[in-house]
Design brief:
- Strands 1-7-6-5-4-2-3 form a 7-stranded mixed sheet, with helices on both faces. Strands 8-9-11-10 form a 4-stranded antiparallel sheet, covered by helices on one side.
- Helix 3 packs parallel to helix 9 (about 230-245), helix 4 crosses helix 5 and helix 6 runs parallel beside helix 7.
- The protein has helices spanning about 5, 15-20, 45-55, 70-80, 100-105, 125-130, 150-160, 215-225, 230-245, 245-265, 290-300, 325-340; strands at about 65, 90-95, 110-115, 135-140, 165-170, 190-195, 210, 270-275, 280-285, 305, 315-320.
- It starts with a helix and ends with a helix.
- The protein is built from 12 helices and 11 strands.
- The chain is globular.
- By secondary structure, it is α/β, with parallel strands linked by helices.
- The chain binds pyridoxal-5'-phosphate.
- The site of pyridoxal-5'-phosphate (PLP) has 13 residues, from helix 4.
């Protein structure tokens, strides 16, 4: 599956690759000797952080790639697997925009399969769209912006019959109560699972994404990435987070409780036509005059996402679940809108 030029690649070898033990005098990397510890390059192999993530995720470190956000993983997968102008990827739309943007940047064709009207995944339709140049199928579950998780049986059908790589993007899995596909990575060689520190873990600012896959694919990703793609600041903050993990579990419960509360309150508003069932930290809400409502909220300093121009999301706003106070401010503004 891997491009020939990547299979034959001799990766850049950094000073910290040549010597990775511990010494007392480092004169090998042209760093400044002053201002420790940030004068030093970070570990290009992220050994400590990979060990800590692997323990929490119960996977082998060889099956884990760490990226500058999940977005680095998405871009690298396309670059490693798809010959520009020849190979193609499949996205199941409406979905996360980065798959299409990365494909376009890399001059890789994309076929789009639509979800069913109820936003469920039609595995047969995805499989019918495959051809021998298809290298990657992107499945986002729970899906952004539709907010639902797909039937695991349908996802499995795609993995088992696709004959190409299948990426299951689980950026929102912690909000869903669904089982992650991570446990299937050791037995399904064409499965790639993406997770992130940006949503449930509350660390979008440090830019850290996790990609789980077969060790050979991880090897190619590691050879192609920028040598120091994860900064020391990110590594240290993530290690600190992993040591205090219970915090984020508590935050996830709070967000799920607020999701339920907000859904109940929104339902009482007559201009809200529909709220789609959510397995994520946002609600997709169909309203009358969505763009007018979007602008009304913006004038009051409340920013939501207008998705009303997206096929199958006509009339919809995407609203992230905030703190109790933020959600209350949103509901107060909506009450005012009702009075207009
Ligand atoms: C937010 C989001 C991500 C996270 O991307 P990062 O680069 O890790 O911040 C990944 N996939 C989907 C579908 C998302 O909505």
């Amino acid at each position: 599956m891997v491009r020939e030029n990547v299979r034959n690649l001799v990766p850049y070898s950094s000073a910290r690759d040549d010597f990775s033990g511990s010494a007392s005098v480092y004169l090998d990397a042209n760093e400044s000797p002053f201002d420790p510890p940030l004068n030093r390059y970070p570990d290009p192999g992220q050994k400590l952080l990979k060990e800590a993530v692997s323990i929490q995720k119960d996977c082998k470190p060889e099956c884990l790639f760490l990226g500058n956000g999940s977005d680095e993983g998405i871009d690298l997968l396309i670059r490693i697997l798809c010959d520009p102008g020849k190979d193609q990827v499949i996205t199941v739309d409406p979905t996360y925009g980065m798959y299409a943007v990365c494909a376009r940047i890399n001059n890789v064709k994309r076929k789009s399969v639509l979800l069913r009207r109820d936003f469920s995944l039609d595995a047969e339709k995805v499989l019918e769209t495959l051809d021998r140049n298809t290298k990657i199928i992107f499945l986002c579950s729970p899906n952004n912006p539709t907010s639902n998780a797909y039937d695991p049986g349908e996802i499995l059908k795609v993995i088992d019959r696709a004959g190409c790589m299948v990426v299951v993007d689980e950026a929102y899995v912690e909000f869903s109560g669904r089982e992650s596909f991570l446990s299937l990575v050791p037995e399904k060689k064409n499965l790639v699972v993406l997770q992130t520190f940006s949503k449930a873990r509350g660390l979008a600012g440090i830019r850290l994404g996790m990609l789980f896959a077969h060790p050979r694919l991880i090897g190619y990703l590691s050879a192609v990435k920028y040598p120091y793609n994860i900064s020391s600041l990110t590594i240290n903050r993530a290690l600190e987070h992993l040591r205090s993990a219970p915090d984020h579990v508590n935050n996830v419960s709070r967000i799920i409780a607020q999701r339920k509360f907000l859904e109940g309150e929104l339902r009482r508003l007559p201009f809200v036509l529909r709220i789609y069932p959510s397995d994520s930290n946002f609600l997709l809400v169909k309203t009358e005059r969505p763009t007018e409502l979007y602008l009304f909220l913006m004038e009051r300093g409340i920013i939501v996402r207008d998705r009303s121009g997206v096929p199958l999301c006509e009339g919809c706003l995407r609203i992230t679940i905030g703190t109790e106070d933020e959600n209350r401010i949103l509901l107060d503004a909506l009450e005012q809108y009702l009075k207009l």
